[in-house]
Design goal:
Number of strands of chain B: 10
Shape of chain A: elongated
CATH superfamily of chain B: P-loop containing nucleotide triphosphate hydrolases
Mean pLDDT of chain B: 86
Number of strands of chain A: 8
Helix content of chain B: 25-40%
CATH architecture of chain B: 3-Layer(aba) Sandwich
Distance between the termini of chain B: 39 Å
Strand order of the largest sheet of chain A: 2-1-5-6
CATH topology of chain B: Rossmann fold
Order of helices and strands of chain A: HHEHEEEHEHEHHEEHHHHHHHHH
Shape of chain B: globular
Oligomer: heterodimer
Strand content of chain A: 5-15%
Distance between the termini of chain A: 29 Å
Strand content of chain B: 15-25%
Structural class of chain B: alpha/beta
Number of helices of chain B: 9
Order of helices and strands of chain B: EEEHEEHEHHHEHEHEEHH
Low-confidence stretches of chain A: none
Radius of gyration of chain A: 31 Å
Structural class of chain A: alpha/beta
Largest sheet of chain B: 6 strands, mixed
Number of domains of chain A: 2
Strand order of the largest sheet of chain B: 6-7-8-3-9-10
Chain lengths: 425, 250
């Protein structure tokens, strides 16, 4: 039996390593994918935090509030405010047109008399409160102050997450300006001076991150992307594996295999062992690129300890088994390569999407969140994140490993039963 | 003469078909014979051979090969038979040697013995210089010869050949037939299908003509010719029994 299995593995490895196209699909493409995606995500992060976004700035207020908003936006180091185009002062109409054409990502329009209206409104409110308390120092007739709105225009192609981030920041800034105005008016009315406690936030935020060897472990884009896209590559093994099985059926070698006294289980064990080796090789190839090549490309390193690599290898084995079982099932069901290759590729993309490789699961709709829980790619991704980002141990990834192994057992059993049934037609 | 293959009432109906591909086939194939199973396209030859090789399951009926029952000992049968399919059932990117090592290993041939046998057979069939060349670079005749070797590495008692000489040059055909005769002399029973009537007439010791899933006639080539009025060769017997209508199968 061992000689048969060994010869099967040798045969499969030779078939794979003599197929240049297959090798490119299995090794080169995943490496390119990981490098490209990590570079893009890393530069996106840097562009938001380091480089500046041009924003069209239309200021109809021209008073203290607009000056402070302008000052704060410029001080944030995230924006360059543009108030003139072709040496002409920007109007709301021009700004709107430019943004909707996609020439700029956003425009901010401050309404006329924003400062004046805010001051009047605040003063009226403060006076009202002081009057109720019998502490009013001035008296004047309240007037109707219409509400003011800061208009924002976004390029329709701008992503919602980015849009929401900007809107939240501006909203926060305006709220602070309003509260500052309220404090200032109180102080003026009461004749006091500004206290330090009003200027500084009493409640602050601190992000607590996992620690390893008394050091904070701060996740970077490589730690997010390398596991996700490695997994994508591992599941992509479905495509060459299913093609391999379909080819055997069409070449006639399948008939020879069926008529031999070797059981189907041994024949498929040869394939499973070979493709499992390939999965591990893919994983280590991507890991080496992430550890060695990324720093030369000014990308963050994965920075993994030996223990983490061992844990990730174990998880990769079970993820590989799950992917292989799908590949074998597809190869058995498909009649032609034209059926198996596009189906396999599309299915992996769907699995990746549902599994949370592209969009985090928590950001999905409720239905999709439920679906993601039955996706093997999600189990494996969670396991990888447990190791890389959550500093987890073997115990933390055992549930995912069990689920992936169970998935393999169910699908490979189904595939073998289906194969046997098919022959009795 | 002793019976090597005893087929008892084998019928086969495919799930998506209205008619039976094989209908109560009863056949005895003598030991050490070269048995020709002849018939037009769609007659049921490949279905019958596929059943005897364990690739397909019959709808009903059973068979015995060298005393092993298809019902009780199907795996024992697989050890006794060799199969040479009509297709070049080889991996194109592997060398002739690598292909044969793999297929030989499936039949439990020990590694050392297997290596010696492969070298011996390849030399015998004129392929020793191409042993380590990839099969995809071979001509049709060379592939047919490797295909044949893959079926005999484990010294089977019965060798099934589905059109083993189709699409090959005269020299390769002569080499293959001559080698099969040699094997037969050494005791291997050969079951062979072909559309080449002249080749079958010369090569086979026994022939059965099958059509529409039924065995029409069985006997030696000489008997079949003698028993068919106005027939002087096997091809005329075949036409007389199966008619001149085209048998296009989809």
């Amino acid at each position: 039996m061992w000689f048969k299995l060994w010869q099967s593995i040798i045969k499969e490895l030779k078939l794979l390593f003599r197929d240049i196209g297959g090798l490119i699909t299995l090794f080169v493409m995943p490496i390119i994918l990981v490098v490209v995606v990590t570079s893009i995500q890393d530069s996106t992060y840097q562009s938001i935090s380091a480089s500046k976004i041009p924003v069209l700035w239309v200021d109809h207020d021209q008073d203290s509030i607009s000056f402070r908003v302008q000052e704060e936006l410029e001080q944030s180091q995230s924006f360059i405010l543009i108030s003139e185009l072709d040496s002409k002062p920007l109007t709301e109409e021009v700004a709107k047109k430019e943004v909707f054409k996609g020439n700029y990502q956003m425009a901010i329009v401050l309404p006329k008399d924003l400062t004046g209206s805010l001051n009047i409104k605040v003063r009226q409110n403060v006076d009202g409160i002081l009057d109720e308390m019998g502490m009013s120092t001035t008296s004047y007739e309240p007037v109707e102050v219409p509400g003011k709105e800061i208009r924002m225009y976004f390029d329709p192609a701008t992503q919602t997450a980015f849009k929401n981030g900007i809107k939240n920041n501006i909203d926060k800034m305006v709220a602070r300006l309003e509260s500052d105005a309220v404090y200032k008016t109180f102080e003026e009315q009461l004749g006091g001076s500004r206290t330090q406690s009003f200027n500084n936030s009493f409640i602050s935020f601190k992000e607590i991150v996992p620690r390893e060897k008394n050091k904070d472990v701060l996740p970077n884009s490589a730690q997010h992307n390398v596991p996700a896209w490695t997994l994508f590559a591992i599941f992509f093994i479905m495509v060459p594996l299913s093609i391999n099985i379909v080819k055997e059926k069409n070449q006639g070698t399948y008939l020879r295999l069926l008529s031999s006294p070797t059981s189907n289980s041994i024949l498929y064990a040869g394939k499973i062992s070979t493709y499992l080796i390939i999965c591990l090789l893919q994983f280590y190839a991507i890991l080496i690129i992430a550890e060695v090549v990324f720093p030369y490309m000014k990308l963050p390193q994965l920075d993994l300890s030996a223990t983490k690599i061992v844990l990730m290898s174990l998880l990769t084995l079970t993820a590989g088994l799950a992917a292989i079982s799908l590949g074998i099932l597809l190869g058995i069901i498909a009649k032609t390569q034209e059926q198996s290759a596009p189906f396999g590729a599309t299915f992996v993309v769907i699995l990746a999407a549902v599994g949370g490789v592209w969009i985090p699961v928590f950001a999905m709709s409720e239905t999709m969140q439920v679906l993601s829980k039955i996706s093997p790619m999600n189990w494996a991704l969670n396991g990888y994140y447990d190791i890389v980002l959550r500093n987890g141990s073997l115990i933390d990834i055992i549930p995912e490993m069990l689920l992936l192994t169970l998935f393999f057992v169910v699908f490979i059993t189904f595939a073998l039963i289906y194969d046997k049934k098919k022959r009795s037609i | 003469m002793a019976v090597m293959i005893n087929i008892q009432n084998i019928s086969k109906q495919y799930k998506d078909s209205d008619s039976q591909s094989l209908e109560n086939v009863v056949l005895q194939i003598p030991q050490q014979s070269v048995f020709g199973l002849l018939g037009p396209n769609g007659a049921g030859k490949t279905t019958l051979i596929s059943i005897l090789c364990g690739i397909l399951k019959p709808t009903s009926g059973s068979f015995e090969i060298d005393g092993s029952s298809s019902v009780q000992n199907p795996s024992e049968i697989k050890n006794k038979i060799g199969v040479v399919p009509q297709e070049y059932a080889l991996y194109p990117t592997l060398t002739a040697f690598e292909n044969l090592m793999y297929f030989g290993s499936l039949y439990n041939v020990p590694k050392k013995e297997l290596k010696l046998k492969i070298t011996d057979y390849l030399t015998h069939l004129g392929l020793s210089n191409f042993m380590h060349k990839k099969v995809q670079t071979f001509s049709g005749g060379m592939k047919r010869r490797v295909n044949l070797i893959a079926g005999i590495l484990h010294n089977p008692k019965v060798l099934f050949l589905d059109e083993p000489t189709v699409g090959v040059d005269v020299q390769s055909r002569a080499t293959i037939i001559s080698y099969l005769k040699e094997l037969n002399k050494k005791g291997t029973t050969i079951v062979y299908t072909s559309h080449l009537m002249a080749e079958a007439e010369d090569f086979c010791t026994d022939i059965a003509i099958i059509d529409q899933g039924k065995i029409f006639i069985q006997g030696t080539p000489k008997e079949l010719i003698q028993n068919t009025p106005n027939a002087r060769k096997l091809e005329e017997v075949f036409i007389a029994l199966t008619g001149k209508n085209l048998r296009d199968v989809v």
